[in-house]
Amino acid sequence: MREVQNHVVSLFSIAQSLSEFIGARSKSQPTNKPPITRTNDPGRLELVRVSCSPRFINQIGQKAMAGEEEGDKMCINERLRDDELRAVLAKLETDKDKEVFGLVCKRWLYLQSTERKKLCARAGPHMLRKMAARFTRLKDLDLSQSVSRSFYPGVTDSDLSVIATGFTGLRLLKLQNCKGITDAGMAAVESGLSSLQSLDVSYCRKLTDKGLSAVTEGCHDLKSLHLAGCRFVTNKLLESLSKNCRNLEELGLQGCTNITDTGLTALVNGCKHIKHLDVNKCTNVGDLGISAVAEACSTSLKTLKLLDCYKLGDKSILTVADLCKNLETLIIGGCRDLSSNSIKSLATSTHSLRILRMDWCLNVSDASLNHILSQCTCLEVLDIGCCEEVTDAAFEGLGNENEESGLGLKVLKISNCQKITVLGISMVLKACRSLEYLDVRSCPHVTKAGCEEAGLRFPESCKVNYTGSLVEPDVLV
Questions:
Q1: Distance (Å, whole) CA 174 – CA 144
Q2: DSSP symbols for 265-276
Q3: Separation between Cα atoms, residue 308 and residue 332, nearest integer Å
């Protein structure tokens, strides 16, 4: 019943768009044809050509359900050309309304299909050919497979050949976890999809520098490339990106352990507009490579992910803090050699920080954490899990009790911080009135009973994770 109601609401939206369009059309092109009205025939959608106020739409719904008719009848398909129906479709704001538009009749379904820009599907070569003929203006195609439900081989090189010849205007292509793809498939992408701007082949584990370099040579407009888990990727690919894709803005290299400082330095020789760089778990990346990125992309860099890059030291973080004033997300969890001084430098220099993950940074002190909380005024998400030296003193003097909002922190993870107590949590609550998620797992001095006994009052929307039973926010991935 609810689904039927949703369809009715969507049809009302279509009715309003049609009425507005026809009203405008009638003013510019006067006609003596009879007005358009609604009929009970589901194959012939008919509407009243008047101004669709909310009150009038409600009246239409009541009359349609009661089976009432009024006025002379004429099918809307006899009145509007294809280009006019496309104009009506363009006025619909939600994807659901656009889907319902295609349920009216075959003609409307065809028009809706040809206007579709985005599609997520599972299909073989035969079906892909049919899709290419139907969705002629497609820009975004997602053929990714679920990690838990992926079937082998899934998308294959022959499928990519069909895509390259059938969807020549494609801008975004997602192929996550498509384990059957090889360098031959990438060669097809290079030859047929010259307008491609975004490619995600994360966890396509057979890909090497050869196939991916071919993509960079044929797709010079590439702005986003995600290669997480592509273990055969080396510095040679980064050199090819630097040479051929100078407008690159987003690069994901998580787990590409063959990437080194040499590759990152070569990358930013040509790609100087990088906004998002993910080198999580690239264990051979150190200070030289990250410093080179910070220097070359100082004004553009907004996201830098360095999880478990254990070779990093203070030099690179100090350079990032000094040069990257627009940085919003920084992941340095597991970088155990960072000193308290480099953490303080982040507080004094990167005031635009919104997300900061520094779990397992063992040298984080009360003073450095207090600097972060008090000076990074845009900070919304903070993870200091397993920072063993942090105590309640880190939260002293935060916020102003006279201020209504306090600090803007929404997510705070302090799991395994052995020295934090209920007193520290009370200071956090006074300063962070917008808190939505608090993780206190494995904090021996912070328990649910202890918080209740102390009379702590958490924000109404705040979820407190005492034991690990809650689903964690994914903002720190």
A1: 6
A2: HHHHHH-----E
A3: 7
Does the domain formed by 241-324 have CATH 3.80.10.10?
yes
For residue 198, the cross-strand partners are 172, 224
Q: Does 116-233 match 339-477 in CATH topology?
A: yes
**pLDDT (average), residues 2-12:** 50
- Cβ atoms of residues 399 and 428 within 8 Å: no
Measure the CA–CA gap between 148 and 154, rounded to whole angstroms: 13
Could you write out the three-class secondary structure of 55-100?
A: HHHHHHHHHHHHCCCCCCCCCHHHCCCHHHHHHHHHHCCCHHHHHH
CATH number for the domain running over 339-477 = 3.80.10.10
pLDDT digits (tens, 9 = 90+) for 341-355: 999 999 888 889 999
Of 84, 86, 69, residue with least CA distance to 35: 69
pTM for the full predicted model: 0.81
Q: Residue 344's CB: how many other CB atoms inside 10 A?
A: 19
CB 440 within 8 A of CB 472: no
The pLDDT assigned to 423 comes to 97
CB 128 within 8 A of CB 154: no
In the numeric block, the tokens 């980064």 are attached to 238
Domain assignments of the chain as residue spans, ordered by start: 2-115, 116-233, 241-324, 339-477
Cβ count within 10 A of residue 95? 10
Distance separating alpha carbons of residues 145 and 204, to the nearest angstrom: 10
Other Cβ atoms within 10 Å of 405 Cβ, number = 10
418 Cβ contact partners less than 8 Å away, ≥ 6 residues apart: 388, 443, 444, 445
Question: Looking at the chain, how many residues does it have?
Answer: 477
Residue for token pair 């400082």: 261
Helix axes 366-375 and 340-349, enclosed angle (nearest 10): 10
Least confident segment among 51-60, 96-105, 117-126, 389-398: 51-60
| Assigned fold of 116-233 | 3.80.10
- 266 has a pLDDT exceeding 50: yes
Residue 250 CA to residue 233 CA, distance in Å, equals 16
Q: Which of 289, 252, 292 is nearest to 272 (CA)?
A: 292
